[in-house]
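Wait, can you check?
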Amino acid sequence: AGVVWPDAARFPLIVRTGTLTNGSRVRYLLNYSREKLNIPRELTNGTDLLTGRQAASTIDPWGVAILESRR
């Protein structure tokens, strides 16, 4: 189904990667922690589809981010 588990992040930061219908790569980041976490730099290239802004370098406790990668 085009889903990849990147090595850049480990529990409690869960990352899943796929492809949107427009061909862009999308990353789903889930923070399963009560602590704010840093997002590995190689995962922050792109736009957060939930906010419409450049991807942040951190993710809030129990947070979710959906990032569309720039080509």
